[in-house]
């Protein structure tokens, strides 16, 4: 009887936990950046820690930090673990950066639930961080976080390109890069000096030349088209807000039907969970529309200025900072047969084609 009582109690507890998850609640200890309200039993933002979590995602998404470097950076900013009040370890930081809870999704035993808590970050930022974490390899003690590390892949086997710093007998140092598949996994491992890689990107960036008159004409066109873009965004926002309100009305009506016994609890939980997921998606779309509306004109002009001054910017940057500019201009960077290969990002590909046409008298 005692065993049956314990088993039944455990089963009922599990049912209660999953029902709370279906309703958007979180029946566990809130992760760092949030806190459990003992009165309302809701999960609220913890202002003491939330800004550190946002900064962790934002800084890691730049590609400038390893997990250890990010830990050190946040520690210097004042971040401490919630319980021990000391610097979090690498694994703890990785758990933070891979936790879907921070953009509004609760994952329990492989199943996802839409939370009613307020997200700290966007799903786009979370996805960007996951792509970077997916490329992390186990660090080697003789490999430093050099300028072009974690930027390129091998054009033969697809593995990451890593850098190594070596010291000559006279005390001077030099850096070269190679495929990480050096133990037979790659059939064509070539060692390329950092100076050669740097010159290759510099040469490519120098080809991006846009006459001043083209820049001014494009700026004028952007300013004129801004009103059309704004009207389109306003229409999209109106539609999204109407859809959100419609779902809210459905949730209110279904809750009343549940109270009156017109629909059973399981049906209400299933439908209300579905409608809340749709509402969460609409809120994300509204946020993207507002950001696009605010950045449309500004980003266009910034792209033009960057395209016009890219080479001078590249040459002035210290080598550790050049990776940021390279990521803006290029994608799919590889080393194949000792040569640097890449694709131009949009819209810089159009500017590069224009430069090529002018070069050949087109």
Any overview of this molecule?
This protein has helices at 2-22, 50-60, 67-77, 90-97, 123-133, 194-206, 212-259, 265-316, 322-329, 348-359, and strands spanning 34-36, 43-45, 105-108, 111-114, 153-154, 161-167, 173-179, 192-193, 330-336, 339-344. It has 362 residues and is α+β, with helices and mostly antiparallel strands. It folds into 3 domains: 2-133, Hect, E3 ligase catalytic domain fold (Alpha-Beta Complex); 153-203, no CATH class; 212-359, no CATH class. Helix 3 (67-77) crosses helix 4. The longest helix has 52 residues, at 265-316.
Index terms:
362 residues, alpha+beta, Hect, E3 ligase catalytic domain fold, 3-stranded antiparallel sheet, 10 helices, globular
Span of the ends, CA to CA? 90 Å
Helix content: 40-55%
Number of domains: 3
Spatial order of the strands forming the largest sheet = 5-9-10
Largest sheet: 3 strands, mixed
Quaternary organization: single chain
Helix-strand blueprint:
Elements: H1 2-22, E1 34-36, E2 43-45, H2 50-60, H3 67-77, H4 90-97, E3 105-108, E4 111-114, H5 123-133, E5 153-154, E6 161-167, E7 173-179, E8 192-193, H6 194-206, H7 212-259, H8 265-316, H9 322-329, E9 330-336, E10 339-344, H10 348-359
Parallel strand pairs: 5-9
Antiparallel strand pairs: 1-2, 3-4, 6-7, 7-8, 9-10
């Amino acid at each position: 009887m005692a065993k049956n009582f314990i088993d039944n109690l455990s089963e009922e507890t599990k049912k209660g936990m999953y029902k709370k998850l279906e309703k958007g609640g979180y029946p566990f200890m809130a992760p760092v950046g949030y806190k459990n309200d003992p009165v309302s039993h809701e999960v609220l933002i913890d202002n003491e820690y939330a800004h550190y979590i946002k900064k962790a995602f934002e800084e890691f998404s730049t590609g400038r930090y390893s997990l250890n470097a990010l830990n050190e950076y946040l520690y210097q900013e004042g971040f401490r673990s919630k319980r021990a009040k000391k610097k979090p370890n690498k694994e703890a930081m990785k758990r933070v950066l891979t936790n879907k809870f921070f953009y509004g999704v609760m994952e329990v035993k492989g199943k996802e639930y839409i939370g009613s808590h307020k997200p700290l970050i966007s799903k786009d930022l979370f996805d960007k961080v996951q792509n970077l974490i997916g490329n992390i390899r186990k660090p080697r003690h003789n490999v430093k976080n050099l300028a072009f590390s974690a930027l390129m892949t091998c054009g033969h086997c697809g593995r990451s390109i890593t850098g190594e710093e070596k010291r000559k007998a006279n005390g001077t140092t030099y850096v070269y890069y190679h495929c990480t598949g050096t133990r037979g996994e790659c059939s064509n491992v070539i060692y390329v000096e950092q100076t050669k890689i740097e010159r290759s990107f510099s040469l490519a960036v120098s080809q991006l030349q846009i006459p001043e008159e083209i820049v001014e004409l494009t700026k004028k066109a952007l300013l004129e088209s801004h009103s059309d873009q704004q009207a389109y965004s306003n229409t999209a926002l109106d539609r999204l807000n109407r859809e959100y309100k419609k779902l809210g009305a459905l949730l209110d009506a279904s809750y009343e039907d549940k109270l009156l016994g017109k629909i059973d609890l399981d049906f209400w939980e299933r439908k209300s969970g579905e409608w809340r997921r749709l509402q969460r998606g609409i809120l994300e779309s509204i946020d993207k529309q507002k950001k696009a509306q605010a950045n449309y004109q500004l980003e266009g002009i910034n792209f033009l200025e960057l395209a016009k001054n890219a080479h001078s910017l590249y040459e002035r940057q210290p080598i550790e900072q050049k990776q940021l500019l390279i990521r803006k201009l290029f994608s799919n960077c590889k080393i194949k047969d000792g040569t640097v290969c890449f694709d131009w990002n949009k819209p810089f590909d159009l500017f590069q084609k224009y430069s090529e046409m002018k070069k050949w008298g087109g």
